[in-house]
Design a protein that fits this description.
The protein is an alpha+beta fold. It is built from eleven helices and 23 strands. The protein is 25% helix and 30% strand.
Length: 614
């Protein structure tokens, strides 16, 4: 099975052409002495080397057939080696090299044209090859790269709010750990433990029927496992990304023959390379439709500028059971709605960086080799893109943007459409701290938190505020079984200190604590549809206390509207300790849609029966 015929004909053709041309040119010689034996020996050695090396290169490296010399510049290396073989054979045969095989030889110097000419061709075309990768050669090139993404700008208030029902609480590290656990606890129909046959592949975040999951294909543990299971993967693992307490789902019953980890002619990467030789296959990942049928999706990229400017031109959906492929142009509305993204994280970041570097030709024009080009009006992506799901629909790659002359604070946030080349730049967190300042704030909360790692850092608009959100997971050294979920943490991006971080084991608890934290803030800001300060007047119908995490909290309802309960910590007002039933009060509270079925957080409390507050 290893000696497959894939790429066999192409390898034989190139080996024959390179060897034949160099051998033919070697017939033109400085002397006829010893010409025949040296050419024959060099031809045999060269042909075998070229055939095996070209086949291995096609099989393992999979070079894309685009760019300099129509994507075949890599053949310059076999040409160089062939030239050296012929030159060395001529030298040995003519006596220029002695004692090579334990004896010396003598004769007239006899060198053919093929060897030296092959070496010259390598250095001449190789130099051209190297310089052809100079990507940006003019202002027109720079403008072209900047326009590969359709970037629009929007004010901070237009940033779409986060759907708090769909916040990622389970980071990738925990998803891998949970997937490994379920494999180790399950067996196949023959009684074999799945962990001896498979391992979880790289997880992909996807929304399935309006719920977020980490999807990991069942990858073969090794070649022997691949053979023992009939060369097919039976399915994948779905880890709930929104609820860390939800059971992991093992989706079996499929016959996924073409996967990225399969061997020989079942390897999906190799099969796609063979079919799309003139494209760059990017972002190959597992996605499922609404009925949980697995597919692999990817983009077909092209170089749009010299030997660079890589950008997607098509989207593909591959059935791993049959290798049937559906192709869609970028932006085609017929692309199935269940496909969350076509643009990979690396592509989205690369295109956004080009826009940030060359998007303002008036204030930051292109200059030769960048000489004298300052950092003014130039921007870059900080960190890695994070896939976020807002209330606007399909997911977007979220990227924090900084100035090239200051990477310690932000200039805004970019949301890059995962299915198209459209992006929007928002100034939602302009001037706020990023980098270590954010992670340090999340780590400086309590002694317990210092034992955890904050992961999956992302920016959300929650209750009208730009909010950093992380998942706390145990440090590797604290839990030898894996990095398990501990808590979810939130902090107002514009008030970034450890004292302002709230965290809890559940999302509902964390959001309630966050509302309370916002209620305590002196910065009211402008009311928004997500977070609005309202005022109510009435008489107390009932008042009681609870102790939450060691703190006293007052729960109040008014006779005028007994359907609403108001929650106020004791430190909100000294009057709370003296308030009684039938007192006339004025309560200012945070009104949010998410809190409609919960106690409303009190911002100010004034008991008119008392004289403590005028």
């Amino acid at each position: 099975m290893f000696f497959t015929d894939m790429f066999l004909g192409e390898s034989l053709l190139w080996a024959f052409l390179i060897t034949g041309i160099v051998a033919g040119l070697s017939l033109v010689r400085t002397s006829k002495e010893n010409a025949g034996p040296s050419i024959t020996t060099a031809s045999i050695i060269s042909f075998l080397f070229n055939f095996l090396s070209i086949w291995a290169w096609l099989w393992w490296v999979q070079p894309v057939a685009v760019g300099t010399l129509w994507g075949h510049a890599w053949l310059l290396w076999p040409i160089l080696v062939t030239g050296c073989i012929f030159l060395l054979a001529d030298a040995i045969a003519s006596g220029a090299v002695r004692d090579t095989f334990g004896s010396s030889s003598s004769g007239d110097m006899s060198f053919g044209l093929g060897g030296p000419l092959a070496i010259v061709v390598f250095f001449v075309l190789g130099t051209w090859w190297v310089f052809s990768y100079w990507e940006v050669r003019s202002q027109a090139d720079a403008t072209h790269l900047a326009n590969l993404v359709e970037m629009t700008k929007a004010p901070r208030e237009d940033y779409p709010p986060t759907d708090t029902n769909h916040i990622v609480m389970v980071p990738e590290q925990t998803a891998i750990f949970k997937a490994s656990q379920v494999i180790a606890s399950e067996s196949d129909e023959k009684g074999r433990n799945l962990s001896t046959l498979y391992q979880p592949g790289e997880p992909t975040l996807q929304s399935v029927n309006d719920h977020l999951y980490w999807l990991s294909p069942l990858e073969f543990a090794n070649w022997r496992s691949w053979e023992s299971v009939g060369q097919v993967s039976p399915g994948f693992i779905a880890v709930d990304a929104e609820n860390p307490n939800e059971n992991v789902q093992l989706k079996l019953g499929y016959e996924m023959r073409y996967t990225p980890d399969a061997y020989f002619e079942s390897n999906l990467d190799r099969m796609l390379f063979d079919k799309y030789r003139s494209y760059i296959i990017d972002g190959l990942s597992l996605e499922v439709d609404d009925d949980w049928k697995p597919y692999f999706t990817a983009s077909l990229n092209k170089w749009t500028l010299h030997n660079g400017g890589e950008a997607p031109v098509k989207a593909i959906i591959v059935d791993p059971e049959t290798f049937q492929i559906q192709e869609y142009d970028i932006g085609n509305p017929d692309l199935p709605a269940w496909v969350d993204r076509i643009y990979s994280a690396s592509t989205a970041k690369r295109l956004t960086n080009w826009w940030g570097d060359f998007g303002d030709p008036n204030n930051a024009p292109w200059k030769f080799l960048g000489i004298g080009r300052g950092s003014k009006a130039r921007f870059q992506v900080w960190g890695d893109p994070v896939l976020v799901y807002t209330t606007s629909g399909h997911p977007s790659w979220q990227m924090v943007i900084t100035s090239r002359n200051n990477d310690d604070s932000t200039t805004g946030i970019v949301l890059f459409d995962g299915r198209d080349n459209k992006a929007i730049y928002y100034t939602i967190i302009e001037g706020t701290a990023i980098g270590s300042a954010v992670t340090n704030a999340f780590s400086a909360v309590s002694a317990d938190v210092k034992l955890w790692d904050p992961e999956h850092l992302s920016m959300h608009k929650i209750y009208g505020r730009a909010t950093w959100v992380v998942s706390y997971i145990s440090k590797p050294e604290e839990n030898i079984n894996g990095q398990t979920f501990q808590a979810i943490g939130l902090v107002d991006a514009e008030h970034l200190t450890g004292a302002n971080v709230v965290y809890a084991e559940t999302k509902e608890q964390a959001l309630a604590l966050y509302r309370q934290k916002l209620a305590q803030s002196d910065d009211t800001g402008d009311p928004t549809t997500e977070l609005e300060i309202k005022e109510v007047k009435g008489t107390i119908g009932g008042i009681s206390t609870q102790v939450r995490n060691g703190n006293t909290v007052y729960l109040i309802w008014l006779n005028e509207d007994p359907t609403k309960v108001y929650s106020a910590p004791a430190e909100r007002s000294v009057e709370l300790g003296f308030a009684v039933k039938d007192d006339h009060v004025i309560i200012r509270f945070i009104d949010v849609a998410a809190a409609s079925s919960q106690a409303l957080d009190v911002r100010d409390f004034n008991d008119l029966a008392l004289q403590m507050i005028e």
